[in-house]
Amino acid sequence: MTETGGEAGPSMPPGPIEDAHAREAADVLAALQSSVATGLNAAEAGRRLAAFGPNRLATARRKSRWAILREQFDGIIAYLLMAAAIASFLFEEWAEGIAIVAVLAINGAVGYFTELRAVRSMEALRRLSQVRARVRRDGATAIIAADAIVPGDIVFLESGDVVPADLRLLETANLQSDESALTGESVPVEKSAEPAPPGAGLGDRTAIAFKGTSVTRGSGIGVAVATGMATELGRIAALTESAEASVSPLEKRLDRLGGQLVRVTLALTVLIAAFGVYVGHGLLAMIETAIALAVAAVPEGLPIVATVALARGMWRMARRNALIENLSAVETLGATTIILTDKTGTLTENRMTVVRIALPGEDIDVAADADADGAAFSADGAAVEPAADEALRTALRIAVLCNAATLPAAGPGGRAGPASGDPMEVALLAAGRLAKLEQDDLLARLPKVREEAFSTATRMMATFHRSDNGLLVAVKGAPEEVVARATQVIAKGGLQALDERGRRDWTERQQAMARDGLRVIALAMRQARSETEEPYAGLTLVGLVGLIDPPRGDVAEAIAACREAGVRVVMLTGDHAVTARSIASEIGLADDDALAIDASQILDPEHRAGIERNRLLKAAIFARVSPEAKLDLVALHQAEGAVVAMTGDGVNDAPALKKADIGIAMGRRGTEVAREAADMVLSDDSFASIVAAMRQGRVIYANIRKFVVYLMSCNLSEILVIGIATVSGLPLPLLPLQILYLNLVTDVFPAFALGVGEGDPNVMRRPPRNPREPILDRRRWVLVGAYAGLIAVATLGAFVLALWQFGMTERDALTISFLTLASAQLWHVFNMRDRSAGLLRNEVTRNPWIWAALALCAGLVAAAVYAPGLSRLLGMSAPSLAGWLLVLGASLVPVLLGPLAYRLATLAGGTETRRA
């Protein structure tokens, strides 16, 4: 084996090995010029990365600029505009035909640049969630991006990891992997470092851990033999070069709504055109009016604005440390009614510190922050020296040996590298360091020959170490499990038998520590003759360790916000009930007398009948929760109609994360398996980030509803203006080009501004919405009609007054009706405010994009009147002062009567609770 860490000459570096599964580990390492002890050095890793490329699969080609541009002219709206242009050219209406082509181009440009930015934003968001891997380089353990792994890298695997490359396993400890995604085999596969037969199929290559599979149990070390598209998963991926784009249910519903509106508006415009011809209007004029009206009536801005709203909302969530993996999660967040959340790391800081060690006959207090002159260990206020206290030293030795974490020593500058592993295990290593017990030193004297990884079934972990007296087995785990299997205990006078009374005494000590809010684990040991012996039989109890994990500073406020928003929070923890209740009381989740249920009884048929369903549904705390219990609780609440969000971090949490309406994985401590199963990943593991994301989900949905109501009411008002005028025998109050111009000016920009608003500050003070509720419910349909009616009446009123009261020409009256309709639609944006907010200070008036959109639209409307070429093309003339006063007075009617329309719509739509 080459021990140079990959020092190679200028020739092509060693690359993927086809038959690694059938070769001895030493041969594979030699072929890859790598070393278990040192791994590759940085220079050689860089050279191999340049030679073989990043360790990633070929993904679907990202949406090209040309594809986005082509989509702007591929739809019924574009077809209607093209038809209008062709009709104009056929009837030799050259100016109108060119103008329609210009409108088509402008619509396409606005849609193109808006969608391009939104699509690129969502692509960038997906790149934020990057897989990491633990490797050995330059003789040290490092956490790197999985993309940077190259052939020859030494990679560490733990339960819950997704294998980052094809690895030839070098060491294994009860290693199992789920290869169902690759082979279709549903049963986890036992892995070993022994070579397989040369002709073995994928499912029988037990010496290989394949890229994309997940580690379900145990741990291991392997050397990367293939990366990227050279892996077995890459070969399968090569068969498919594209993938379907993700479309959220919300976008699908908007598409369906748009399709329904197209059919309805086309029918209406045909009827209006037919009736107009019947009452004497010219055929060409009515055809052009009908086409322009159809174009204006269909809210073509719906899909674009929805994409923009979703993209901007996702970026806001990302800034609050919530990365959305699934677009449908955005919609679900706003409807969430209950959050089932882990305690450790989500409600607490996940900054574990050993503060107490319970030994036979004494409790040792631990001061992790003791200075050089202070005592790190004390009993009843008196300093305790670990070297002189054999029981304490034995407990710390077991805690350091039975440990899968790493805690680098301080370097020459006095700064240590980052710790890796479970925070609880890191805390145990830190406590050992206070007693000058370093993991590397202990392992040098007591080499590890076997590891029995922590299992949710046994709730214990064990390591076997070779010693002068045979094999030492170091054990740690849940106190009730360790104490139940212990037959003796270390005392000052030597070993003592542990009877039932002794077990009760230790259980009482453990409960007392739990009441103080400590997380408690037990330490034990035994001697063994063989590595194959059962690790947990006949244990010798060494002591209990109490660790503290303080609540996050912002979690109490976040839980209070959930309560105000009508969202229940239920704590799920592996700790004991008394510990969980103490933390729950401290953060305001529940009081000291709150019901805390032992979740292990949920799955036990003998106890299920004794635990009433209502008690389970009302409980705020579940202790000793297993992954199976999480899945059961999710199903229980969903059966009651709840929309369930659930947090998880372990490989066994994946089924519950998928089962939940929205699965939330932890970005820092979570396994890759959990992150892949989740809809949302918290990069800071904080509960407050869930609440912030939930608020943003409500805001996005509310914004989309606002711009749908706004677009629909504006477009319907145009149909009503033409329709009522046609039926009443009035001259047409709008020309086809004016309708098209209005559609361009007043539809898109205010709708965009509504879609990206910050939202109502009171959105989290209302209960969640019903997830089955349509975007436009009965009340909102009535509201659309009421708003449209107000705008239409105001426009026609101004048109009639201009003709008959002010004696204006038809051209001047057309200008008045155009300006009134345009201004009324711009003022109408202020009707989209929340009714609980003030008229002048609300989420609409505080939105700077609204004011920018209004300024732009006002400028475009003014240009239609005062720009010579444009005004002549649109058939407009500059109004007098009296004309402007008429426009101002009439256009303000819809916004002034808007509250009355809202009240009438509420009465007509039925009484309902205001929801987010």
Layout of strands and helices, then pairs:
Blueprint: H1 25-31, H2 42-52, H3 65-71, H4 76-90, H5 94-128, E1 132-137, E2 140-145, E3 154-158, E4 166-178, H6 180-183, E5 189-190, E6 208-209, E7 214-226, H7 232-237, H8 249-278, H9 283-297, H10 301-319, E8 322-324, H11 328-333, E9 338-342, E10 353-359, E11 362-366, E12 377-379, E13 382-383, H12 390-401, H13 423-434, H14 439-445, E14 448-452, E15 460-467, E16 470-477, H15 479-485, E17 486-491, E18 494-497, H16 500-515, E19 519-528, E20 539-548, H17 555-564, E21 568-572, H18 577-587, E22 596-598, H19 605-608, H20 613-618, E23 621-623, H21 627-639, E24 644-648, H22 654-659, E25 662-666, H23 672-677, E26 680-682, H24 687-728, H25 736-755, H26 778-805, H27 810-827, H28 848-866, H29 868-874, H30 881-896, H31 898-909
Parallel strand pairs: 9-21, 9-24, 17-20, 21-23, 22-23, 24-25, 25-26
Antiparallel strand pairs: 1-2, 1-3, 3-7, 4-5, 4-6, 4-7, 8-26, 10-11, 10-20, 11-12, 12-13, 14-15, 15-16, 16-19, 17-18, 19-20
Helix pairs in contact: 3-5, 4-5, 4-9, 5-10, 5-25, 8-9, 8-10, 8-24, 9-24, 9-25, 10-24, 10-25, 12-13, 15-16, 16-18, 24-25, 24-26, 25-27, 25-28, 26-27, 26-30, 26-31, 27-28, 27-30, 28-29
